[in-house]
Write a structure and sequence with these properties.
The chain is an all-alpha fold. The protein is built from 2 helices and no strands. Helix 1 crosses helix 2.
Amino acid sequence: MIRPRKYKETLIAQVRPETRRIVEDLAMENRTSLSDVTRGLICEAIRARGLEA
C-alpha cells in the first residue's frame, strides 16, 4: 500500500559530494530519509534568516 504524499512540491539541487555525505550521515543517525533531513535543514536555514515559510 502506498501512503499518501504529505508534500506536493519538489526541489532539486546539485550539491558537492561532501554535502551529500553529511545529509546521508544525518539521515542514518536519525533513522530517517534524505528528504526528511533536507527539509529540516532548509527549514532551519529559512528561520535563521528571520523568514517564515
